[in-house]
Amino acid sequence: MKKIDIRNLGIEDLTKFIEKNGDKAFRAKQIHEWFWNKGARSFDALKNIPKSLIEKLIENFSFPVLEIHEIQKSTDGTAKFTFISEDKKLTEGVLIPSLKRVTACISTQVGCPLGCKFCATGQLGFDRNLSAGEIFDQITLMQSYALETYENPISNIVIMGMGEPLLNLDACTDAIQKLISPIYKGMSPKRITLSTVGLCDGIYTLADMQLGIELAISLHSAIQSERERLIPAAKLNPLSEITDALKYYHQKTDQRVTIEYVLLKDVNDQAIHSRTLAEFCKSIPVKINIIEFNPTEGIPYSKSDDKVRAEFAAFLESKNLIVNVRKSRGKDIAAACGQLAGKITKSDEI
Question: Which of 29, 149, 277, 300 is most buried when burial is the number of CB atoms within 10 A of its CB?
């Protein structure tokens, strides 16, 4: 039988196992601290745990971890990490340094099942979900690089890499809870942003969990028919239902939602699109991130002209909306928004 990943075991179940095998219950807390606070990456790293108990753990559980397969460095300081799993699957993460912070962009799936037409990851198809431990590993592995290279720790996390987080909700929220727990990593939840294309069921669940993290919606059009052409999942999650879900999220959390909008030349960057976006954003408090499209081989879109982008943002600002125009980082190493996994194919697996 395949062994259970020990990091998928909650502390209560781990306590029961330990007591059943004749050891003391407090060992479960010690082991969890090794996993989620000290960044242990093997059973051998559990230094203050009795050898007899470690042997029992090895006998009954697996401990799969991600490893760094490759690091690519951009001319702008961005670093893209290709991680390899125990079963030889590849996924990617990105470190983005700025003057005051280091942001880690992490993944939740190998590939992505949603097939968004402008996203390189969406063209890969879906392989599998990442475990909570594998999601957490990305931060552990990139933290060392951040400290050594940027002389600063990771200050912010954006869950915007490969995959749709709300399709791997249990593992994703488990990893988040370990990151924000004061007894583990103790990060401020306000420094973690989860991005989704707008899967309503997941938004309601997140709202009820009240983790305190930021929520971002990859909208890209406020016209339903056009959004469906760009994002196939929009057919099952229409704008009217997303609006209701976001209202509920705001009601439960009192948090402003971020609307992400990639501008595509002659596709979603005209006056009708800025008007409909402004109308959509009237329902709840939001801020809007205008994102430059980053070309990727095989994807038939191009970025909007600078003048068009400026006029689009100016119109939204004239409607008293908060607008940020995001600059792309790491384009030269395919690490920018929408480019992750652009060079990973099945044949690249090791």
Answer: 277
